[in-house]
């Protein structure tokens, strides 16, 4: 296994300045690990990934400890702009080309389910983070882009994922076809 340069992944390399969450947010409660501990699961890293893993395992009745070599929550988690999208960095169309329809749709459905699950978790735990559901808007300025968006919407419909076309996009595409 390749050696990992720990300094390269320090929290100060992930962000600079003061993200808004670090001013207003509640700081995670933590204490130095001073004694040996016996637990069912130890999670390394107290960012959102570790927190969600910890929450899941604790909910299943396991005793859990999360350890962090720096301050929990102050890695890339605090740097996030906090926009949660179930769309991945690749369109469904691109993923279909790479993996075929079923696998591509599986990725999108799991992503949509995880955003929905996170929203439920926030409500269930009364987390005051001002979560606001919003729709994503995709824009295009040319006919080729209109064709791409049209294909994307059709694929999403086949997959049972919510999506709709604006009238302007439909007419932009019609000009071409
Ligand atoms: C500027 C920026 C903007 C972003 N915007 C968004 C966004 O809008 N939407 C979105 O979904 N995502 C966004 N992201 C990505 C998102 O923030 C990260 O994917 C997510 O926070 C990663 O969480 P994590 O828990 O895996 O990592 P981190 O939050 O980095 O947590 C890892 C923790 O592990 C600890 N650690 C590392 N190595 C060790 C070790 N050897 N031993 C013990 N502890 C260790 C670190 O100290 C750290 O606390 C953004 C990221 C950045 C940087």
Describe the structure.
The chain is mostly helical. It has two domains: 6-79, no CATH class; 92-176, no CATH class. The protein is 47% helix and 5% strand. It is built from eight helices and two strands. The chain has helices at residues 11-14, 20-24, 48-59, 76-79, 92-99, 101-124, 143-159, 167-176, and strands at 41-44, 64-67. The chain has a two-stranded parallel sheet with strand order 1-2. Helix 3 links the parallel strand 1 and strand 2 (64-67). It is elongated and about 65 Å long. It starts with 10 loop residues before the first helix and ends with a helix. The structure holds flavin-adenine dinucleotide (FAD). The site of flavin-adenine dinucleotide has 25 residues, from helix 1, helix 3 and helix 4. Flavin-adenine dinucleotide binds next to helix 1, helix 3 and helix 4.
**Biggest β-sheet: strands ordered side by side in the sheet:** 1-2
| Shape descriptor | elongated
Mean pLDDT: 87
Count every beta strand, where a strand is a DSSP E run of 2 or more residues. 2
- pLDDT < 50 stretches: none
Q: What is the CA-atom radius of gyration, in angstroms?
A: 21 Å
Percentage beta strand:
under 5%
Bound ligands, each once: flavin-adenine dinucleotide
Number of domains: 2
Order of helices and strands: HHEHEHHHHH
Structural class comes to mainly alpha
**Sheet with the most strands?**
2 strands, parallel
Helical content class: 40-55%
Regarding quaternary structure, what we see is single chain
Give the termini distance in whole angstroms: 53 Å
């Amino acid at each position: 296994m390749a050696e990992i340069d720990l300094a390269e992944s320090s929290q100060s390399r992930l962000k600079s300045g003061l993200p808004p969450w670090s001013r207003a947010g509640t700081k995670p409660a933590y204490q130095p690990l001073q004694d040996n501990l016996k637990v069912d699961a130890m999670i390394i890293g107290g960012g959102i990934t570790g927190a969600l893993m910890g929450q899941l395992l604790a909910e299943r009745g396991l005793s859990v400890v999360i350890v962090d070599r720096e301050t929990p929550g102050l890695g890339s988690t605090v740097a996030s702009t906090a926009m949660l999208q179930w769309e991945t960095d690749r369109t469904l169309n691109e993923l279909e080309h790479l993996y075929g329809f079923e696998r591509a749709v599986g990725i999108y459905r799991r992503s949509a389910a995880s955003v929905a699950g996170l929203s439920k978790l926030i409500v269930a735990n009364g987390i005051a983070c001002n979560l606001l559901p919003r729709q994503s808007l995709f824009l295009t300025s040319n006919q080729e882009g209109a064709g791409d968006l049209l294909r994307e919407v059709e694929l999403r419909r086949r997959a049972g994922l919510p999506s709709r076309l604006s009238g302007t996009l439909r007419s932009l595409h019609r000009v071409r076809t």
